[in-house]
Amino acid sequence: MKYTIEPLGDNSMIIELGQDMSHEIQQKVKKVSAFFEENMFDWVIETIPGFTTVAVFYDPLKIDTTTLPYDEVCAFLEPLLEKLEIDGDADPRVVEIPVCYGGEFGPDLEEVANHNGLSVDDVIDIHSNGEYTVYMIGFAPGFPYIGGMSEKIAAPRRSNPRLKIPAGSVGIAGKQTGVYPIETPGGWQLIGKTPEKLFTPDGDTPSLLQAGDQIKFVPISEEEFQRIEEDAR
Amino acid sequence: MIKITKPGLLTSVQDLGRYGFQKYGVITSGVMDTTAHRIANSLVGNAENEATLELTLLGPDMEFKEDTLISICGGNLSPSIDGKPVKLWRSVLVTAGSKLKFGGCKTGCRAYLAVAGGFDVPEVMNSKSTYLRAGIGGHNGKALQNDDELSIGELSELSGKITRVLAAQLGENKFVEMQWTISSDFIASSASKPQVRVMKGRQYDWFTTESQMKLFTDHFEVTSQSDRMGYRLKGPELALEEKQEMLSEAVSFGTIQVPSEGNPIVLLADRQTTGGYPKIGQIATVDLSIMAQLKPGDKVQFVEVSHEVAQQLYLDREKKLHQLKQGIALKIRQETK
Q1: How far apart (Å, rounded) are the C-alpha atoms in residues B194 and B221?
Q2: What are phi and psi of A121, to 5 degrees?
Q3: Which of A39, A145, B153, B160 lies 20 to 30 Å from B326 when distance is taken between CA atoms?
């Protein structure tokens, strides 16, 4: 696998796997992240995947060397990373996210439809039939950066951002779609809401989604929304 | 137990941070000035990662419900117990019923109050740090409020020994300070325009030659739009050679990123996990404490340092902090013989 390594700070570095956002680069990012998770080197504190990068935070004191810890780490990783190859047949995890579209949950659904000269049902149809990949988690706990939305339902951000967007809201901003894990202010066009919790502060994996996951949005009724929400309690 | 009788500007429970969950978008939180926090813990016999209270500019008022071994390190926010000034960077034994107050901010911006045994709050995702925006960790996920009561954890063997050394000197006083303190090498400079060492960032080459030069020759001022998440600086405008879009990638404590309007932002303890602005620089870890003690209106001068030197400085400083901890334990052992 081709890559470059560069320091981020004096106890972190960035492994870059390409320049552009693509499926292939995404697969590489996933592979390198998995490599660190499987090996659990004691000098690694944690890794953070980006769109084309994997950042590695490490403890220089845990690296036994007479030279610079960074040089030692690079020399150690080089042959291992070079050997890594994407296994083409690895199936991604598919996570279904039930969404109740429109109504009070999706106050901007009509605007998104009007903006694109579509009906509300068309927007729901296109949004829920898309194939989506989670590129990375960032911005807020559990917030997925999702690629793969059809440009047919793209819509600009609201000129007047909302002060409070409820957790679970599904929105569109430009050519991106996303789900808000916690209540935040934001300018996304809201088209629906999921009863699923994307962020649970306790537990080993506080985020429902991980980089590399595939997402399917499944339309549900308001009754189903309430039933799922109650079951989760 | 400690009871808060006035909350101060922003007082929160923090440890060295919540690591291992950034890939899920969970920020690290944690103390801004790690050196002051670690020394405060060492002076009361705690592990370095034990939670302390981070006090900001205007400190809180509090009452001690039991005899407590404490230490206050970092910025000088004029602490006093029942009207008598308390020295910073020392082990201090405070008796039950004493009231600790803070006055004006004389130097720095943040102080750290460690208590022997630490604060007995639950760990959330392996950390006691308060993640203010998400409302988790620390004391009920929030900055401290009036009437909050904080329980104190079990004392370590060393904490017990320090307590006994001081108790023997207490007499009729409400509190007693250790006669010795730490080397001033560890105390962040309170110079009016401190120098902070900075490595070139990953997108340093994207900036104009003039901007690259000005980063290290001009000075920058901390603006009022500064908090635990980051400091917005004002100074010469930093411009890209040509407009370039960047794909979001990880950032770190001390990353200096530059949004398109040209004023740099230094990312600190409550930074987001990733960022999409070009990174012109990265503050050397050893100088982060200087940065964390700056307040709005303060000025800073960045000085270039290579990555190699920054990492070597880090190793050297860790060695010194380790020796300091051993030194404290040794001194206490001699005094309890």
Answers
A1: 11
A2: -65, -35
A3: B153
First to last CA, chain A: 45
The stretches of A44-134 forming alpha helices (DSSP H) are: 69-83, 109-115, 120-128
Q: Most B CBs within 10 Å: which of A5, A10, A63, as the mutation test of the B interface?
A: A10
User: CA-CA distance, B329 to B319, in Å (whole number)?
Assistant: 16
With b for 16 or more beta-carbon neighbours within 10 A and e for fewer, the B152-177 pattern comes to bbebbebbbbbbebbeeeeeeebbbb
Judge: B25–A210 Cβ closer than 8 Å, yes or no: no
Using the predicted structure, report yes or no on whether residue A80 has a pLDDT greater than 60: yes
Q: Please state the length of chain B.
A: 337
Assess contact for B163 and B91: CB atoms under 8 A. Answer: no
State pLDDT tens for residues B280-303: 999 999 999 999 999 999 999 999
Show contacts of B323-329: CB within 8 Å, 24+ apart.
B324/B39, B324/B42, B324/B182, B324/B183, B324/B186, B325/B42, B325/B48, B328/B42, B328/B43, B328/B45, B328/B158, B329/B158
Average pLDDT over residues B18-25: 95
Q: Per the CB < 8 Å rule, is A46 touching B312?
A: no
Closest in B25, B247, B285 to A137, CB measured: B25
Best mutation target among B27, B131, B247 (most A Cβ atoms within 10 Å) is: B247
CB contact, 8 Å: B315 with chain A?
A: yes
Backbone angles phi, psi at B166, to 5 degrees: -75, -35
Q: Which domains does chain B have, with CATH numbers?
A: 2-184+327-335 (no CATH), 195-305 (2.40.100.10)
The pLDDT score that the predictor gives to residue B189 is 67
- How many angstroms separate the CA atoms of A136 and B15, rounded? 27
Token digits for A174?
Answer: 């430009």
CA angle A8, A15, B274 (to 5 degrees): 55
Is B224 touching A (CB cutoff 8 A)? no
A61 and B318: CB-CB below 8 Å? yes
Q: Walk me through the domains of chain A, giving residue ranges and CATH numbers.
A: 4-83 (3.30.1360.40), 94-231 (2.40.100.10)
Q: Which tokens go with B165? A: 């050394």
Assign B269 to helix, strand or coil: coil
Residue A15 CA from chain centroid, whole number? 18
Side-chain-side CA neighbours of B192 within 13 Å: the count stands at 0
The rounded distance, in Å, linking the Cα atoms of A23 and A30 is: 10
pLDDT (0 to 100) of residue B187: 81
The token pair at B220 is 């920058």
A111: number of Cβ within 10 Å: 16
User: Using CA atoms, how far apart are residues B48 and B294, in angstroms rounded to an integer?
Assistant: 23
Cα dist. B160→B46, B50, B120 in Å?
A: 10, 16, 17
Residue whose entry in the numeric block shows the structure tokens 């696998």 = A1
Q: What is the pLDDT of residues B140-190, one digit of tens each?
A: 999 999 999 999 999 999 999 999 999 999 999 999 999 999 888 888 766
The interface predicted TM-score of the complex, written ipTM, equals 0.96
Which candidate, B196, B262, B264, places its Cα nearest to that of B230?
A: B264
β-strand partners of A179: A170
